[in-house]
Amino acid sequence: MSIFPNPSPTSGPQQPATPPPPPPAAPPPQYSGAAPQYAPQPYYAPPPAESGSAWKTIVLFVAVIALIGATAYLYMQLDAVKKDLAKANDAAQTRLDKLEEATSVTTRSNRRTVEELRDQLERARRQASLAAGQAKEEALKKVDETRAQLEAAQQRAEKAQAELKSDLSQVKDATDSANTKIAQVGSDVTTVKGDVAATRSELEKTVAELKRATGELDGHSVLIATNGKELAALRALGERNFVEFTIHKAKQSQRVGDVSILLKNADPKKNRYTIELTADDKTVEKKDRNVNEPVQFMTSKAKQPYELVVNDIKKDTIAGYVSVPKVLNTRN
After folding, report:
1. What is the pTM of this model?
2. 242 with 234: CB under 8 angstroms?
3. What's the pLDDT tens digit per position in 209-226?
4. How far apart, in whole angstroms, are the C-alpha atoms of residue 142 and residue 136?
5. What is the DSSP-derived secondary structure letter of residue 304?
6. Residue 268 CB: number of other CB atoms within 10 A?
7. Would you call 299 helix, strand, or coil by DSSP?
8. Please, where in the chain does CATH 1.10.287 lie?
9. What is the Cα–Cα distance from 132 to 138, expressed in whole angstroms?
10. Which one has a higher pLDDT value, 161 or 297?
11. Could you tell me the fold of the domain covering 212-325?
12. In the predicted structure, residue 204 carries a pLDDT above the cut 80
């Protein structure tokens, strides 16, 4: 099939194009009525993508998704704080309006009371000046009572004003506290963005530094962790499960995940070890294996091989991890 479109129109038949006039000595070319066709072009398949680039792309994609999720979560928190602040401000404003209204009513009432008391005081004074004897004493007593009532009313008015100032101060403190929380959330968002970027950069660097080795069963290249940092990077890839172990030389084997391991020999000078590996009730000896060498073996629970890697060899002790496939099912 040609990669170029057919030059012939599809809407209807068309007469063939007239060729240029031939030289006088040669007869004109004749066509059979069909337009000339173009020769088919060869098809070149795109080169296969490199597996290393695919792993890096997956890691970057997962990190970016995590960054987006963390940023969205923090922005949702910021929006929630803003809504809470708006509700608090509305409640404070409503309370302030009620307080102002109550204070206004109280002030007017106190003013009327003071005016009435002043009128009574003035009347009492006039009566006292006209009265004599016992009447004068009673009038003076009435004056003292009225004065005391006036002072009490003034004290109540001052107390109401002080309470209003206290409420206004509390509303201001609540507003300042809410503004401080908003600023703190914004700072936390910036900090998390920096932490996510640093974590992504560190993860990419660690994945790039991971060592590769060829599996003894499937012949495929596998990633190997030689320390805790690299093992954490392998876990972050999410492709397999990992079970760490430390095994001492003993008469009984030690259970590690789905398998049992018995340490037969550990040579820290040559970085070699020998173990007996038991899986599915079958025991196999793995002799003179090197440190950081992947030991692959199959079980009935997975189609992919398990991997055992020893990272540290000491006298009568080995430490490492067992890599288990994510998908566990029965082999056909």
Report:
1. 0.41
2. yes
3. 566 767 676 666 788 999
4. 10
5. S
6. 15
7. coil
8. 52-207
9. 10
10. 297
11. Tick-borne Encephalitis virus Glycoprotein; domain 1 (2.60.98)
12. no
